[in-house]
Amino acid sequence: MQKKLLGNSYLLLVMILLYIPIIFLVVYSFNGGTIMSGWGGFSFVHYQELFADTRLLKILLDTFILAISSATIAAFIGTVGALFLDGIQNKKTLNTFLSFNNVLLVSPDVTIGVSFLILFTILGFSLGFVSVLVSHIAFSIPIVLLMVLPRLREMDNTLVMAARDLGAKRGTILSQIVIPEIWPSIMAGFLLALTYSLDDFAVTFFVTGNGFSTLSVEIYSRARQGVSLEINALSALMFAVSLLLVFTYYLYTTYADKKARLTK
Amino acid sequence: MDKKVLPVIEFKNVGLSFDNNTILKNVSFEIEAGQFYTLLGPSGSGKSTILNLISGQLSADAGEILFDGKVINNIPAESRRVNTVFQNYALFPNMTVFDNVAFGPKLKKLPKDTIKAKVREMLALVKLEAFENRAIQELSGGQKQRVAIARALANEPDVLLLDEPLSALDYKLRKQMQSELRAIQKRLGITFIFVTHDQEEALAMSDWIFIMNDGKIQQNGTPVDIYDEPINHFVADFIGESNIVNGVMKQDYLVNFVGKDFENLDAGMRPNEAVEVVLRPEDLDLVPIEQGKLVVTIADQSFRGDFYEITAIDDDGNEWKVQATNPSSVGARVGLDFGPEDIHVMRFNESEDDFDARIESYEGE
Amino acid sequence: MKDNSRAKIFFAIPYISWLAVFVIVPIGLLIYQSLTNVQGSFTLANFHEFITSNVYLPMAFNSVFYALIITLITFMISFPAAYVLSHLKHRQLWLMLIILPTWINVLLKTYAFLGLLSKSGIINQLFSTFGLGTHNLLFNHVSFIFVAVYLELPFMLLPIYNSINEIDPDILKASRDLGAKPINTLSQLVFPLSINGIKSGIQAVFIPSLSLFMLTTLIGGNKVMTLGSAIELHFIVTQNWHMGSTIAIILILAMAVTMYFTRERGKRK
User: Fold this and answer.
1) ipTM score here?
2) Domains of chain A, CATH where assigned
3) Among A184, B7, B114, C155, who pairs with C204 as Cys (CB 3.0-4.6 Å)?
4) Does B154 share its domain with B75?
5) Would the CB atoms of A235 and C118 count as touching at under 8 Å?
6) What's residue B4's pLDDT?
7) How many residue pairs from chains A and C have C-beta atoms closer than 8 A?
């Protein structure tokens, strides 16, 4: 019993450690003062600053537009790629493709960033929204593929056989059998690509120009100049959004679980 | 099957191999319309391969496959007038029962009312009228089986292929589905080709059985023919229980085994040809020693419900399985009796054609 | 299946183009840059300089050393935590709580430490109330390691938790049944059976630790130089792309070596 208590308190300690910086950020977003120490009374002044800061709001919007469009395109190309790889019978060929696929997944983001920078420079491609978008699509494709391909592989092949047997052509099989079957994994790949894009700093840092910035890059340059509680307000809002997302996801999965159990 | 009807399916010297493994060797056969056929054999014998060749999921390396007299080797699966009931049902999990059954008719772009009527008719046929809007996950194994049958039949195939469809069901349900399938086939009058490794199931359901082993058809015939006159050791062993001993065919109607001569009903072999002799356990009787053709000692006995299975050993050490209605006692010495009609003689490596010809030669007399 | 060649090409084109343009060409360009000088002629001078100068090689060893420390500390914290976690009743909820911070932008979390660790920050206030005086907590090696551990912790914890969680509980029961003390079970069963999770945890922590460059600037105060920050320096500040690419190639090699030593081997069926 004592051991259990010891273990649980240890875990609790780790959790507290994980959350202290976040709670700290949120608490100080309501500070009336201007730095992350001392306490100048409760105030919404930094939220007002945030909503008046059109530059930051535009960057926030850009970051989300970038994430959603890169994740969507990557989900499409990644799924198509998974369908292509699924059709390869030769094991050796498949493994070669897969190891190339994984290069961008395991490479440190700095090397991805600089190698793309060299690529864009040599191609004479100007750095800005498009170069960042293309880069995010590029590093998200293998993520989607890695979510979709296993699902395709473990898909019951007799479903396709049955559809063919009943007279379905390739297009129908794809749209009515295969896609619905792998849809959850495409969505999972999309969501993962979305979070990777939102979270990316290093790749964006190298391939963006003067005219375009994402949240990560903006925070980096602001943080180098010192603390501004406007950033705290922003993090508090982002944390609230994350919480909301996680909560909805949790509700959705437990609901799906319940439904699955009920229908058994 | 005297009158010559055009076969609905014909295989002419069909062969198939994967990665240097021969799956089918030179297989030829004909399937007539409106019958219940069974492909019976152990796993890996090639029976499911034949099914996949008919449905078009596989294509043959050699030979011709004909459907209604036309070669269909290059016709894709979706264009063949054949449908399949899969072993694991392969129901589309993202669709309701109705949409699963309506899948084929919808692809044919039939009018909505026709589709609805067709689906209802099929669900009625498999006794699932009330299940139209159920999700696949809500069904029991037996119900899934019925939906799979309805879905395949909704496409109005000329031939329905069934790939071990009952193997996942429990014993009672399996028995029930066997008779229902038979009834559905009779009612629709279309050809069923049923694949199974269960010999009891094959004997109970089929008009005609193909016994497969090692990529070849070993024997085909009615259940009774195959049971009574197995062509070789494999068939005799695979279908029912058998006692198989080596013997010599001294002359027509006289065979020697376990050191004794016995009268029998087989003929057409070379004098003193080495053969195998089959005696079915249910054809053997335990009698007092003086009335028996052989003397045996009871070695083991177990109760099987409707009979006793007895293992007896003769003085040469051969084992005899006997099905008896009355119990015996282990260690007792008794006589073993059988008649000439109970002895079935098999030649080594006799082809089916030769077998048929030989039987014709002396039974015709 | 000869009729599907057109469909195959349709599926293949976008994916293969991506592979070519964004995987193969960039690696080729990096190698090309590292093997050329400003005049564009081929040379091994960059690698020669990397090995012989008294700047690069010590920097690389330093970077590996820091990454090792970070990896070791995250492992020491994560393994017991994962073990405790796998025995909890509501572990799905706890797991969610561990994953949640990873959804928050890394830069925001890093930024939080600027406040936490500053001279007048909350930690220093605690120190002074206990009479320990205030300290320079930011912009040194310790703060760099501390924040890096904080950021990488979930990526070590989750794979270890997953592999511990996959262990059949009956195995652990059997171990107790046979008289093993918890410590024996832990060292002889839990640890070896979760080795693949530990290996992926090491991969997920060690490789990024070699390349973190925003942390060295924001938290390390440029006192710490990692391979990543050296690359940034050469590409952005000194604009010597050839040397920068050389360091990037070294980083990729370091990654390859790490992957080799932490690969899953002898997977039994």
Assistant:
1) 0.85
2) 55-262 (1.10.3720.10)
3) C155
4) yes
5) no
6) 57
7) 223
